[in-house]
Design brief:
The structure is a single chain. By secondary structure, the protein is α/β, with parallel strands linked by helices. It has three domains: 317 residues, TIM Barrel; 209 residues, Class I glutamine amidotransferase (GATase) domain (Rossmann fold); 66 residues, Golgi alpha-mannosidase II (Immunoglobulin-like), CATH 2.60.40.1180. It is built from 18 helices and 27 strands. The structure holds beta-D-galactopyranose (GAL).
Length: 694
Amino acid sequence: MPSCERVLYGADYNPDQWLHDPAVLLEDVELMKKVHATSASVGIFSWTALEPSPGVYTFDWLDETMDRFAKNGLVVFLATPSGSKPMWMSELYPEIRRVNAHGQREPSGGRHNHCPTSPVYRQAVARINRELAKRYAKHPALALWHIGNELNGECHCPLCKNAFHDWLKQRYGSLEELNRAWWAGFWNHTFTDWSQIPTIDKSIDGLCVDWLRFMNDQHVSFLETEMAPLREITPQVPCTTNMMGTNRGTNYWKWSKTLDCISNDIYPLPDDRADTWRKSLGSDFTHSLMRGFAGGNPWMIMECSPSSVNWSKINKLKRPGVHLQEVMQAVANGADVVHYFQWRKGLGGFEKFHGAVVDHEGGTEGRVFKECAEVGRVLRSLSPVVGIAPARAPVALVYDWEARWALDSSAGPKAGTYGDRYTEACVENFRALRSAGVEVDLVAVDADFSPYRVVVTPALYSLSTETARRLADFASAGGTWVATYLTGYVDTNNRCWRGGFPGPCLREVFGFWNEEVDYLFDDEKVLVQGAFSGLDLLTEATDIVEHIHAEGATTLATVESEFYAGSPIILRNDWGMGQTCYIGARLAEEGYVAFYQHLAKELDLPRLSLPRGVVRKTRLGADGPVEFLFNYNRHEVALDLGEDTFVRVADGKPCRGKITLRPYDSLLKGVRVSDAAAAAKPVSHPTRHELQPS
Ligand code: GAL
């Protein structure tokens, strides 16, 4: 992490787009100070501004920016410019342009469209990165390397295809082995020469998963190519790249092994009509994932919008209080850095209407600018938490790209709402655990499970014998392993396990046999009836219902409709000194919550009992715990705080005893109340900024 004593606060900043108007650049720094910014990410798409023709460098504007920042006590997250390649480079070396899935080489438009394999592009990136590192190695403003931007996507060019073949040779050693792994006799797909292997064939599901693995590895090795000169010349400066949450093609568990620190871009879309707490718990899920990538340590928000975005179908404004809450929510979840996209709205281009700290109007009187200043002040009061790892949760939930890719690539299981049934299963279980008042860490499938009381593996569709054994051993050593529908269908090559689901050998561990699986119509539901913890549970299941036969497990709930009525759907099995539990259908929310409440009670897990959508989080701080209390709802909620005294961030007033939480309320405890109160004073920016039309 960039070293700092307070939460770093800033934005993506594009001074190179304003060189024609130097007054704006001077003013930017003054405005940054007004919102209590500490930092900015500079140069993300600036390659042509840095190198207008091959080998000709124009660093003057960046020198000036770096100097101006240092002079004003601000630091720079210096970007490598690989997120968008110069036009001249695309012309000179067409091979650096991506080839799409239809085999067409793409033009040089848009961005994020380089071939990750091209040696020419890799060399060019290493060259410009070396120049940047040499030039700014000793600059006091340099705090962090921001590698490229949201690296992702696929390229199907001949270079990538050859590299894929080499990758496959490494993995399988021989074509016989590959054909076996891919069940290639199906539809006559047996390969007799490596060169025959395509990059896409949806009918070969083993190939699909391997292609995703390969592309992910190419991105990781591209990142390493980028970082090599930076690490050589500036070993003291950490490297990060901005991730995109649960983006499909990027197995960030692998990326995090090579990065120095973790950063994420997150854009929860404002929707004031729906159950807002669901969306907020969805953000908690992503934040917990980041904390997982960071090994439980603090991490960064590299991008969020201070208000609306411009790329959604409906680009709503964030309602008052929402943004402040989202930022504090991230800090409560371990973020030590909060940056925006974007500092100032550009006058042209695709993102001219995207939310920004500084609007086209350019002044300090707008609602968003004032809110950003307020956020900056609140973040200052949260300095005691900086650099301190949040406490570990009692429950670990596994998020596994391999299982997701295998499920995605298999025809049969019904597609999820967004084609991502796997992530839906993970988020729903996370949300239910949190609604039951239980804290959750997100971990990789190869994590050390021993510090946890419970490990939850939603829809772990593909798994190796080794993973199955590790999880079973965790249970037999006294832990509780909770698995759900779609567990253990295929191996790591996406070939079905023989001997009955769940495989491999998990039939005994879970004490049941999953004979078949029913995929329901969107509007279909089956009834589920359970009786546990003195609770009579009547709920529904949708989408996926497994037809299960107990083989030693205790039935906690059964299906009550359909031809498989009476068959078990929630089961529990003793395993060694611990137990396994299985939820064989996609339950309605209340079903999951009831199950996890039951489990938490049975295991005596630490948990909080709060109204729906009210969240209390504790982060360890230098002077003791810092507590956050949020109302994620758009409506008021009554709450009894007892003897606890919090400060309402919106007005700086102390709250204790019986209180009414306002919509999107955020309360703090354990930071200096005077700081928090000061934070809440209305922002006074009486001077109207007068920018000449450019
Ligand atoms: C991100 C991207 C930024 C900006 C932002 C707009 O995905 O990294 O450059 O485009 O979206 O929301």
